[in-house]
Every structure is written in structure tokens, then in C-alpha cells.
Amino acid sequence: MEHFEALIVGAGPAGSFAAELLAKAGVKVALFDGRPEGEPKACGGGVTAKALKAWPHLLNAVGRTVGELEMYSPSGKPLHLQLEEPFAIYSRIAFDLYLRDRARKAGAEIFPAKISARGIRRTQNGWTLREGAGASNPKRLTRPAPRAAGCEWSGQMLVGADGAGSSVARLLAGRLPPSEMEVAFGYRAPLPEVGESPAVIAFLPGWIGYAWAFPRLDHISFGIATTQEAFEHQPLDKLLWDFMLGYYRQREDPKAKLWARRQSDRGRDHRIREKLATTAERYAARIPGLSDKTWDTRRVCGEAWALLGDAAGFADPVTGEGIYYALRSAELFAESFLVQTPLAYEERWREDFGRELKRASQMRRRFYGNFWGAPFTERMIGFARSHRGIKRVLGDLVAGEQGYVDLKKKLARSAMWPV
């Protein structure tokens, strides 16, 4: 049995970044990655300008920088945003591999082993992790193979960074109810053969959530994010296919509508659908979407354990964006651990971004609710189309530069409305 100072379960952005920071400081770290090689997460892969400014090395990952965004209201009204602060779009396979490689180069030991709750045991000196029979198949991996199914590791600190369905979180902080989960699913599809490939966000007609089209270097990530409570697979999958067809249709005919299809579009749509049926690859995942009351009561660290990123529930309940919070939580935890005050991590994340996430939870229903007899998202884009100040605030929100705590005042000031 090998002994480590920190055992990090999950090698997504949060786990890999924490492993890198700790290993650089001389901590003996084990990082466990139980995902099959090449398995993508249902994520647009968007990394905000706020994250890029905080950690400029992220730009070294293979990705695409985006300075413009097309946004659509539920009725299909377009809004073109020229972003003052560009964001980046990455394949999550490439992005996660980049961060994992940085952790390895910093000195973290990486094991392609799946750790379940049944394989976690508390001991007098910390923790023991055991790889169960359901561990990743070494034949599917190009990373270093595990020793054998059933091997064990021990360590002083256990860190859960294993996503929204975290085994570590269920064991130590309790299971989140379905009402505090969101669903994201989508398709990886080919780039259009003609025309440009813009980044698009479209709020769903008659539904909570939004659809995205994020072009990457060799494909497009299409997806829908909605709440677990609102999720119905068949109608939402149809809505996503309508969105994808509209996206490709507009590349061939700029006058075409995103959601509405004309009689003359039938032949083109049939051809596009046939191609996508043989080339698009589907994926799905859950995203935390905590309620405002849960932010007050749920703890993400305790004696010799901590949770990071999605495992801690750190995702924007309005947009589902979690990469910034994954990286920032890893940074705050590593700083606390290295000065031997790991329990201070709880207070630090609350002071740093906890208020923003709680405010987003409070705004979620209003954001996807009605305002003056129409969806709020419809009104928001309508106002932005005719008012530069509101449009600028909306662009800052997309870039991650505008928070939710002062969003109402900022919009009111921009539009010269009474608060």
C-alpha cells in the first residue's frame, strides 16, 4: 500500500488543478481518474474571460478563442454580441488532458482507477482507498495502467473532485435531491461545410434552459441545459435537433430562421438530418444546481476531507457554468492546505464566490420566468437589442465579468430605470 499526503478522487479541472498546485509545493499527491479514455463530458467547454485572466496558462490548451456571440430569445429574435473580453472554447477531452498533464509534470502520481464509496474507508491516520472490481479497463487506456483491481492507497487528506454524482460527496456531505440537479446533454457534430461557425446561445421556447452551439477546432458541441425537474428526454431531444438543423440551415442561407422552418427548407433539413444521424455523437451529464437555502447549510470540508468543483455543488444555477468555480475552489483549497489550515477552506470559498452562487440560485426562477407578460429572457434580449448599456452588461455577464449580486442595479443604471 502506498501512502500519500493527499488523495484526490476525480481528474477533471478541479482535481487536476488542485493536484498540480499541491505537487508543486512538494506535497505527495495521488490523483485518481476513473473515466474511460476519450469519454467527453456534456459541457459546452466554454471558459470565461474571467477564468482566462485569472489563469492565463489556460490559453496554452488546444482550443478556440471567441470574441463574438449570437444570442437568441425564445421567439428567435437575434442579438449579436461583440465581446470586449473574449472567452475560449475547448474540447473537454483536450482541456482535461492538458490540466492532467500539468499535474503529472508537477509531480502528482495519476492512477486510472475508479474509486466508489464502497472503496473509501476512514482510518486512525486518515483514509484508505480501494479500487473495486468495477475499475476502468486498462486495455482502454493509454495512460499508465493501474497495478491491479483491488489495490489500495492510503493518505491523510481525502479530496472529492469527482463531479456532480460524487461518491465522496455522498459519503461525507450527503446526497443532493433531484430538485438540486440540472441536466445537460448534447451531440458532437461536424463543422458546417459552408459559411462560418459562430458560437450561439439560444433560450428555449416554452422551456426552462438554453441550447448552445460552440464550435471547436474540428467539430461543434451542441447541447441543452435544463433543470432535472423540467427534463423530459423526448421533447427536449426533438428541440435540440430543431436547433441543430436551424444552425446548419443558417450557414447555407443567412435569411433562414433558427427555430421556424419554411416549406422550402424541408429538402435541405432532410439532407442535414441524414448526415447528422450518421456522424453526431451523443453525450449527457448532470450538473449541480443548488437552492439558495442549501448554500447556507451544506458544508464542503471537514476533518481531513474536502470537496471541489461540481462535487461541492459549485456551478452557476442559472447557466450551469462550473469551470471557473472548479479552478477557483481548487486554488482556495490548495492555499488553505499548504498553510496547514485546511478547514479555513470553508470560510474562504464562501467569502470568495459563495454569495454570487447563492444570488444566482435566488434569480434562477425569475430568469426563466415571466416578466411583463413574456419570458424574462425574451424581454432581456429585446431590451438589449435597442439599448447599448444593457447589451454591454449582458456581454459582461457572458464573459464572467458581471456578477449576479449587483446585476439588477447595473441593468437599472444602464437603462436609467429606477431601482
CATH class of the largest domain: Alpha Beta
| CATH A-level architecture of the largest domain | 3-Layer(bba) Sandwich
The total number of structural domains is: 3
CATH superfamily of the largest domain: FAD/NAD(P)-binding domain
Shape: globular
Uncertain residue ranges? 133-148
Helix content: 25-40%
**Radius of gyration, in angstroms, nearest whole number:** 22 Å
CATH topology of the largest domain: FAD/NAD(P)-binding domain
Sheet of most strands: 8 strands, mixed
- Summed up, the helix count is 13
Counted beta strands: 18
Q: What is the rounded distance between the termini?
A: 62 Å
Mean pLDDT across all amino acids: 87
Task: Outline the structure in words.
This protein is an alpha/beta fold and 419 residues long. It folds into three domains: 2-44 and 93-178 and 291-364, FAD/NAD(P)-binding domain; 58-89 and 179-286, D-Amino Acid Oxidase, Chain A, domain 2 (2-Layer Sandwich); 366-415, no CATH class. Helices cover 37% and strands 24% of the residues. The protein is built from 13 helices and 18 strands. It has helices at 13-24, 49-54, 92-106, 167-172, 233-252, 266-279, 292-297, 309-312, 323-338, 344-367, 376-386, 388-399, 407-415, and strands spanning 2-9, 29-32, 46-47, 63-72, 78-90, 109-111, 120-123, 126-130, 152-160, 181-189, 200-203, 210-215, 220-227, 281-288, 301-302, 305-307, 370-371, 374-375. The strands form three sheets. Strands 1, 2, 6, 7, 8, 9, 15 and 16 form an eight-stranded mixed β-sheet that branches. Strands 3-5-4-11-12-13-10-14 form an eight-stranded mixed β-sheet. The protein has a two-stranded antiparallel sheet with strand order 17-18. β4 (63-72) and β5 (78-90) form a beta hairpin. α1 (13-24) runs parallel beside α3 (92-106), α11 crosses α12 and α12 runs antiparallel to α13. The longest helix is centred in the last third of the chain and has 24 residues, at 344-367. The protein is globular, with a radius of gyration of 22 Å.
